Amino acid sequence: MAVKHDILSVLQEVRDGTLSPEDALLRLKLAPFEDLGYAKVDYHRAVRQGVPEVIYGQSKTTEQIRGILESMRRRGCINILVTRIGPDVAEALKEQFPLRYEPLARLAVALPEPVQSRGSIVVATGGTSDMSVAEEAAITAEVLGNSVTRLYDVGVAGLHRLLSNLEPLMSARAVVAVAGMEGALASVVGGLVDCPVIAVPTSVGYGASLGGLSALLSMLNSCASGTSVVNIDNGFGAGFLASRINQMESAES
């Protein structure tokens, strides 16, 4: 990331004696964020977390997203995730930035660049109706540098569909289990694999599913050890967490 290179350059100048420690401290103090009035863009996110700030697009205007992206482009950021935006916003952003838009996930990757993929993450869904949330998770993980295998429509109503995919499940470093209705997929997967399972309840289901609340409570009460739960429809959060788990494993191996 360009921000990391900026900090390294400052440290090298101090080492070489071309920059005083006091001036270096001032430069670093000025570096962490830029105040755009409507947003404070966090340039040090990549330094702290290894990933540039992600833009949550819902409820932001197109102009606000444009301003944030432009400020990040000036600092050399690439592969910026813009979540929860519609195709009209994506088309408007494409006029100013290179941008890949994924309509099913309602997610865009601004200033896209190739990334080296590693490890193994599986994203599984109970049904086809869960795919939009699953794609948000899968694409997030891919942009962050992870290899992702998709297993869609493998829910408990036809358990043989899941059991026919044991090989990718058993070799995964993390599994994202996305399901609505009663959310049983996460417990089943959690009972099969030896890696962390990230359960994502979706708002898919009939009346008593209560907009995903039934799946959320089922997943929170899972008896399968090693299963954690993110919020309803939070594919992004699941993909990000799976990436952390996978890349910690990669760093140790």
UniProtKB/TrEMBL annotation:
Domain PurE positions: 119-251
One Gene Ontology biological process: 'de novo' IMP biosynthetic process
Pfam families: AIRC
Alphabetized Gene3D superfamilies for the sequence: 3.40.50.1970
GO molecular function terms listed in the Swiss-Prot or TrEMBL record: hydrolase activity
SMART domains reported for this sequence: AIRC
InterPro entries with a match to the protein in the record: P2CMN_synthase_LarB, PurE_dom
Coiled coil ranges: none
Name the record gives this protein: 1-(5-phosphoribosyl)-5-amino-4-imidazole-carboxyl ate carboxylase
